[in-house]
Write a structure and sequence with these properties.
single chain, 280 residues, alpha+beta, four-stranded antiparallel sheet, 7 helices, 23% strand
Length: 280
């Protein structure tokens, strides 16, 4: 009788082995399928956000090219040029400074900006600008690139609270023999906030500058899926990768024309939580 019980227990244990193996195999396959689905969704979201970023920023540059036709910048009076700048400033809440400069970066007329936009009802959505902001903008204008190609958008700058970018477009006229450019500083704050809203509570969406610094965040040299390299990849990447001591699922997409990038990332443990519950 004792021998019978021992054999019965042994057979029961052996019967559970295939079930355990099958369960482990099934969870593993489920993890793979879930990972592939999440990576696909992240890749689509990153691509969509990259296109939105490029479209939004480049649309302001196209607007500058339109304002450049509002007057003969070479012959117009300072009052007329200032009027053009005011029109450009009013047309976009994201413009913080707009100026006309010569080929050396010297202003032709006073720049248009507001130190206290809250005091003006119709312009309160603009960001306030200080004297220090104005000086930094002067240093950030992509003069050489715009003079070489006719138009240029510089790399992002500013801190996490006030991410910005400078852009410039050459106007066709010359003033006293000098080449002229219409330049603007553009706030990226609303753009970054709207893109972040596309993610979920556990899924982050980051816009990255050329040096892999997160725009609008205090995070530099952001880790990406795929081969490790300086700067941003020119092609999309997706997969599981290590970010310090964390494993993440992520997808990266380059931003067309600008040389920026978008990263969608999520902790692997959070992403695979549904299959982890199956083991419990």
């Amino acid at each position: 009788m004792r021998l019978f019980h021992k054999l019965a227990l042994l057979l029961s244990a052996l019967a559970l082995v295939p079930l355990a193996v099958f369960a482990a195999f099934g969870v593993g396959r489920t993890n793979e399928a879930l990972t592939e689905r999440i990576e696909g969704e992240q890749a689509r979201l990153a691509s969509h956000a990259a296109t939105l970023t490029s479209t939004r920023v480049r649309s302001i540059l196209r607007s500058l090219s339109l304002y450049a036709t509002y007057a003969d910048f070479g012959a117009a009076s300072e009052e007329v040029l200032t009027g053009v700048l005011r029109v450009a400033y009013r047309q976009s809440d994201d413009i913080t400074i707009v100026s006309v400069v010569d080929e050396s970066g010297e202003p032709v007329v006073a720049s248009v900006y507001l130190e206290d936009p809250e005091s003006t009802t119709t312009l309160r959505r603009h960001e306030a600008v200080t004297a220090e902001d104005l000086e930094e903008h002067g240093r950030r204008v992509p003069l050489d690139a715009a003079l070489a190609s006719g138009a240029a958008i510089g790399p992002p700058y500013g801190d996490a609270e006030r991410p910005r970018v400078a852009m410039a477009i050459e106007v066709p006229e010359r003033r006293e023999g000098r080449r002229l450019l219409l330049v603007a500083e553009v706030s990226l704050g609303r753009l970054v906030a709207s893109l972040r809203a596309l993610g979920t509570e556990s899924e982050e969406l980051l816009v990255l500058g050329p040096g892999r610094d997160a725009i609008g965040r205090e995070e530099a040299a952001v880790a990406l899926p795929g081969p490790t390299a300086e700067g941003l990849p020119e092609e999309p990447t997706v997969g599981v990768y290590r970010d310090g001591g964390r494993r993440r699922l992520g997808a990266y997409a380059p931003v067309p024309v600008l040389g920026w990038g978008v990263l969608v990332r999520q902790d692997e443990s959070t992403a695979l939580e549904p299959t982890a519950r199956l083991r419990r």
